[in-house]
Specification:
This protein has 260 residues and is mainly beta. 5% of the residues lie in helices and 43% in strands. It contains two helices and 15 strands. It has an eight-stranded mixed β-sheet with strand order 3-12-11-14-15-1-2-7, covered by helices on one side. A five-stranded antiparallel β-sheet has the order 6-5-4-8-9, with no helix packed on it. The chain is globular, with a radius of gyration of 19 Å. It starts with 8 loop residues before the first helix and ends in a 6-residue tail after the last strand.
């Protein structure tokens, strides 16, 4: 699944700066990733992470950077967070029914709550609810409902046969409000690499049109290994009574084939 799976790494960065340690608060990061699964079919994956950490600056889908930049594709930071117990399981409600998320440890020892299966039936753009029971000495009990990111439709093809001076205009069907943003990543293998390691990353307002300058596309044009990732994302941030915060990220992700 594509999209912004790296966002919980902000908790690791906050914990590893080496500067004077700021005040830590209970933080919940609730994530819902969705993608297509055949004609008019969709699947998704809900996840939740709870930690005692300094509050990072989370991205806001209502305030996108609205720019494109050339960058290396970096590996996720490896480290551990001060995880909080949020209960034995979390109920996740959607229009497809109720799924339970259970705590699991990754290879670095960080804990996240996820379903027993890789994907569940999910309709992107519909409301979902996380029912968090909470735990004594851990994260408090809370119920949170939000609307997920709708599917991406009418996405124009992104070409590869360009002149160096050519800009690329990308169009799609907008949501119609300011609650979502669109991210486009043109990725390629550079310097004799067998895997993609460079990208043009664009973050745009979800208004149906974005432009990638030809000045940053020269590597994309000459590459032989290419990949495109497109994500629509919607975020919410809620401050909790007594301190702490809850951050919600929903994405709809797709991997379109590059054009001619």
């Amino acid at each position: 699944m594509t999209g912004r799976r790296w966002w919980p790494a902000a908790l690791l960065v906050a914990a590893c700066t080496g500067l004077e340690e700021p005040e830590k608060v209970p933080i919940a990061i609730l994530r819902v990733f969705a993608q297509g699964a055949g004609t008019a079919q969709f699947v998704g994956r809900p996840e939740a992470t709870f930690a005692n950490a300094a509050a990072p600056e989370f991205p806001d889908s209502r305030l996108p950077a609205d720019l494109c930049q050339l960058a290396d594709i970096l590996n996720l930071p490896v480290g551990t967070t001060d995880n909080l117990d949020a209960g034995d399981s979390i109920a996740f409600d959607s229009d497809a029914g109720t799924t339970y998320l259970y705590p699991k440890l990754d290879l670095a020892g960080n804990e996240s709550y996820s379903p027993a299966t890789s994907f569940i039936s999910l309709n992107p753009g519909a409301a979902v609810t996380f029912r968090i029971p909470g735990a004594t000495g851990g994260f408090p009990a809370v119920t949170f409902t939000a609307v997920t990111a709708p599917p991406i439709t009418q996405l124009s093809q992104i070409p590869t046969s360009l002149l160096v001076s050519d800009s690329v205009v990308v169009t799609w069907a907008p949501v119609g409000d300011d609650s979502t943003s669109l991210e486009v990543a043109l990725q390629w293998a550079a310097e004799a690499s067998a895997v993609v390691n460079r990208q043009v990353l664009c973050q745009w307002k979800d208004d149906g049109r974005g432009v990638i300058s030809g000045a940053i596309l020269s590597e994309w044009i000459t590459a032989t290994i290419r990949r495109i990732e497109v994500s629509r994302y919607r975020t919410f941030r809620q401050d909790l009574l007594g301190g702490g915060l809850l951050y919600f990220l929903a994405t709809y992700d797709t991997v379109p084939e590059p054009g001619p």
